[in-house]
Every structure is written in structure tokens, then in C-alpha cells.
Specification:
- The protein has 130 residues and is of the alpha+beta class.
- The protein has one domain: Thiol Ester Dehydrase, Chain A (Roll), CATH 3.10.129.10.
- Helices cover 18% and strands 42% of the residues.
- The chain has two helices and eight strands.
- The mean pLDDT is 92.
Length: 130
């Protein structure tokens, strides 16, 4: 895990891995049996997908606006678009608008094809600017 999410205990629990390329962060959540929410399908738990998206958005905001601590979420909305299969999940976020105190961020998670997202997030984060 890179230093973007090292202070988030749940990121360590999910074993998230961040890949930074320029000003863009890609976060990978490797598959593990503990992430299964419905063993009958099997399908990933929605909470783990939501956490991946929120932490990805936090990492993107932290990369763009570094501060002494991670950005704090104000509100988060997650849309589940497809069933998360028992394989690795990837996520990326983009900052649509940022002011002095608040950033509006959108993120998407996918598995095999980026054009077929399994979930998306829209959130606002409080920037920790001194």
C-alpha cells in the first residue's frame, strides 16, 4: 500500500494497493474469501465495494490536496450497477470540482473491463487546508 492510504485501518484490512501514475490513483482490492457477501452466487459484499470506492476517492483528493490527515467525507452516495464477482476489483476517482473547503468527487469500480463498472460513487469531502 502506498502512503496515500497507510493511515486508514480499513484499507489495510481490505489489503488495498494503490498505483499512482502522474496525478491519477488506481486502487486495487485483491479478492479474498472474507469479502464474499453472498456465498450462494458468490458475490462481493456491497460494503467492501463501497469502502473501496470511498477510500479511492479519499486517495485522489489526498494526492491533489495533501494535508496533515485524510480528507473527511461529508456525504457519500454509492450506486451498485452489477454484481461483484469473486475476482480483483479496480477503482479510479476524479475530482469534478474543488473549492477552498470542499471537493466533489466521482469514482467507479470495475473488474475485467473499465467500461463495465460494477459500482459508482459520488461524494463531497472536506479539505483540510491550513
Amino acid at each position: 500500500m502506498s502512503d496515500l492510504l497507510e493511515h486508514a485501518p480499513y484499507a489495510r484490512f481490505l489489503d488495498l494497493r494503490t498505483l499512482v501514475s502522474g496525478d491519477e490513483v488506481t486502487v486495487v482490492m485483491p479478492f479474498a474469501d472474507r469479502l464474499i457477501g453472498n456465498p450462494m452466487l458468490p458475490a462481493l459484499h456491497g460494503g467492501s465495494i463501497a469502502a473501496l470506492l470511498e477510500l479511492t476517492a479519499m486517495a485522489q483528493v489526498e494526492l491533489a490536496f495533501p494535508g496533515p490527515r485524510l480528507p473527511r467525507p461529508i456525504n457519500v452516495t454509492v450506486a451498485y450497477l452489477r454484481t461483484g464477482r469473486p475476482i480483483d476489483v479496480y477503482a479510479r476517482a476524479r475530482i469534478n470540482r474543488a473549492g477552498r473547503r470542499i471537493a466533489h468527487v466521482q469514482a467507479e469500480a470495475w473488474q475485467e473491463a473499465r467500461g463495465e463498472p460494477i459500482a459508482s460513487l459520488t461524494a463531497h469531502f472536506l479539505l483540510d487546508n491550513p
